[in-house]
Design a protein that fits this description.
The complex is a heterodimer. By secondary structure, chain A is an all-beta fold. Chain A has no helices and eleven strands. In chain A, the strands form two sheets. In chain A, strands 2, 4, 5, 6, 9, 10 and 11 form a seven-stranded mixed sheet that branches. A four-stranded antiparallel sheet of chain A has the order 1-3-8-7, with no helix packed on it. The model of chain A has no long low-confidence stretch (mean pLDDT 91). Chain B is mainly β. Classes of the chains: A mainly beta, B mainly beta.
Chain lengths: 117, 109
């Protein structure tokens, strides 16, 4: 089954304790992205990756790191989490095709609800 | 700054038609998406518009006017399962996706 998986689905942690949220897709997609979703603010992009070893900042990259060593995996790292990073996080992937018009429907993972106390 | 406006909440009756509007001011335009998101779940793709006009897909249609910075999603023959949030997103000139806050649609019997 074609899918994007995220782990863990729920996480409660304390300020300053490093954590990693994993994301994996089995559709051979080039493009992967991380979002956070907060009430009233919609989805905000944290980082994205056009392909292996290529990552770029989105709208809200501060406090986050990513890596793309393999095409299928795109982990999100919080080196020193803070309470303002409490949010719902989504990983997404798409078959980025380039060209003048991009039509990259994104496939989202199920989400990770993170609480930092 | 970049901005996408959608109504926060709308209510409609089962079997009726509803139109959800989206206006945008972004640095450039390279396409517009509509996604559906049920509470507690991931967004799922509904439509993509890059040229002016209406795209129809079953009970759902999406319209785009680039000159007016305006789009709408039209849902016909509403069903209770259509109760969800509807997200509008625009690809800007840097090929970044800018998302609206979403419109929560409540369907009443």
């Amino acid at each position: 089954e074609a899918q994007v998986t995220q782990n863990p689905r729920y996480l409660i942690t304390v300020t300053g304790k490093k954590l990693t949220v994993t994301c994996s897709q089995n559709m051979n997609h080039e493009y992967m992205s991380w979002y956070r979703q907060d009430p009233g603010l919609g989805l905000r992009q944290i980082y994205y990756s056009m392909n292996v070893e290529v990552t770029d900042k989105g709208d809200v990259p501060e406090g986050y790191k990513v890596s793309r060593k393999e095409k299928r995996n795109f982990p999100l790292i919080l080196e020193s989490p803070s309470p303002n990073q409490t949010s719902l996080y989504f990983c997404a992937s798409s078959p980025y095709q380039g060209g003048e018009y991009l039509s990259y429907e994104q496939y989202f993972g199920p989400g990770t609800r993170l609480t930092v106390t | 700054g970049q901005n996408i406006d959608q109504p926060t909440e709308m209510t409609a009756t089962e079997g009726a038609i509803v139109q959800i509007n989206c206006t945008y001011q972004t640095s450039g335009f390279n396409g517009l998406f509509w996604y559906q998101q049920h509470a507690g779940e991931a967004p799922t793709f509904l439509s993509y518009n890059v040229l002016d006009g209406l795209e129809e897909k079953g009970r759902f249609s999406s319209f785009l006017s680039r000159s007016k910075g305006y789009s709408y999603l039209l849902l016909k023959e509403l069903q209770m399962k259509d109760s969800a949030s509807y997200l509008c997103a625009v690809i800007d000139s840097n090929y970044l996706l800018i998302w609206g806050a979403g419109t929560k649609l409540i369907i009443k019997p």
